[in-house]
Amino acid sequence: MTLRSVVLGVGGYLPERVLTNAELAGMVDTTDEWIVQRTGIRQRHVAATGEVTSDLALAAAKAALADAGLEAADIDLIVLATATPDNTFPSTAVAVQAGLGITHGAAFDVQAVCSGFVFALATADAMLTSGRFRRALVIGAETFSRILDWTDRTTCVLFGDGAGAVVLERQEQPGTRDDRGVLTSHLRSDGRHKMKLYVDGGPSSTQTVGHLRMEGREVFRHAVGMITDVVVDAFKATGYGPDDIDWFVPHQANRRIIDASAVKLGIAAEKVVTTVDRHANTSAASIPLALSVAAAEGRLKPGNLVLLEAMGGGFTWGSVLLRW
Ligand code: ACO
Questions:
Q1: Do domains 2-173 and 181-323 have the same CATH topology?
Q2: I need a labelling partner for 24 at 20 to 30 A (CA). Which of 161, 176, 235, 274 fits?
């Protein structure tokens, strides 16, 4: 027998306010046509004044717990991925923990920008399957609207706010690739690229929060290769291939990156879950939000083989293959 981290529930939360491309065209020199053609994005959600990352995360966590049929007290580990925490410290995870009324176990944040959810899932999986914790909330939550330069058309059109969460439970499984739960995860980073996508502020450097800066073309150039490499690692580790995948749930940065990755990997278009048109790039929240949409639409079913991947600032990138 082998210990596996099995997904019991998923939930998402999007702020009420929707900002369309047409509205953005009234703020910066852009058009709906340019944004749709280059990115596939049609709209994004933006947090209300006073609504912070932990508010979004808490709503997603409650939705995931309800989906799992569990109480907050059943959770003993919270791993929250964000690059836009409420405060420099304490972690946003402890704000969620307090919001849920949990006083046992551990809660902490993980920072890998857009790869954050994949890094958080792999971290929680390691902590559950080591036997130290029993049930985890793994959350991706972001308010990128707070770190965008709203006068820079090359970045402000790309991102949105939101949160998604999954509940994982440690379970004994037979120990084959047919098991439910996380089957393999592969994480990578290469700090040589740290200035290609970064925020130009921080507590130790400028004592300000700063704004997101990106060499979009450079990010694009590296993205497909990095994504496909780490997915091939997951295939090699499990013996599964593109035809075995039921759902490919990539980080939702750009429709062109998603489509090019699926084509290069040989994954059929109808297996790709895409939400970038509605949510834009919600960084660490994009994968769990996409999972929550696929589950709510009845597409994602127990036993499905699900492939997750992400690439983001750092660069960081990673993949997780799991059976729902
Ligand atoms: N509206 C209109 N024109 C624009 C806009 C805009 N919003 N933004 C840029 N342009 C202009 C540029 O100024 C440029 O004009 P020029 O030719 O006169 O200089 C022209 O459009 C082309 O610009 P490029 O940057 O070459 O456009 P490109 O086709 O590369 O698309 C984009 C830009 C969409 C940013 C693309 O490079 C991309 O998607 N990169 C990856 C970005 C990404 O996904 N980042 C997130 C991944 S990691 C993470 O998730 C944090």
A1: yes
A2: 274
Going by pLDDT thresholds of 50, 70 and 90, the confidence category of residue 315 is very high
How deeply is 36 buried, as exposed, middle or buried, from its count of CB atoms within 10 A (0-12, 13-18, 19+)?
Answer: middle
Six-digit token string for 207: 């004592």
Of the candidates 114, 193, 211, 279, the residue annotated as catalytic is 114
Distance 262 CA to ligand 1 centre (A): 21
Strand partners, 92: none
CA 165, CA 79: separation in Å to the nearest integer?
10
Output the residue whose Cα is nearest ligand 1's atom 20. 154
| Integer Cα distance of 156 and 61 in angstroms | 27
The answer to whether 154 and 276 are in contact (CB under 8 A) is: no
Q: What percentage of the chain has pLDDT greater than the value 70?
A: 100
pLDDT band at 8, cuts 50/70/90? very high
- CATH T-level assignment (fold) for domain 181-323: Peroxisomal Thiolase; Chain A, domain 1 (3.40.47)
Tell me, using a 6 A CB cutoff, whether residue 216 lines ligand 1. Answer: yes
Q: What is the pLDDT of residues 245-290, one digit of tens each?
A: 999 999 999 999 999 999 999 999 999 999 999 999 999 999 999 9
Q: Is 287 in the pocket of ligand 1 (CB under 6 A)?
A: no
Q: What is the pLDDT of residues 76-127, one digit of tens each?
A: 999 999 999 999 999 999 999 999 999 999 999 999 999 999 999 999 999 9
Ranges of each domain in the chain: 2-173, 181-323
pLDDT at 17: 98
Please give the structure tokens belonging to residue 103.
Answer: 């006083």
What is d(CA 255, CA 216) in angstroms, rounded to the nearest whole number?
Answer: 14
Regarding the beta carbon of 155 and ligand 1, being less than 6 Å apart is answered: no
If you count them, how many residues does the chain have?
324
Distances (CA, A) of 161 to 182, 229, 235, 242: 27, 28, 32, 31
Closest ligand 1 atom to 30 CA: 1
CATH 3.40.47.10 fits 2-173, yes or no: yes
Ligand 1: centre distance to CA 261 (Å):
18
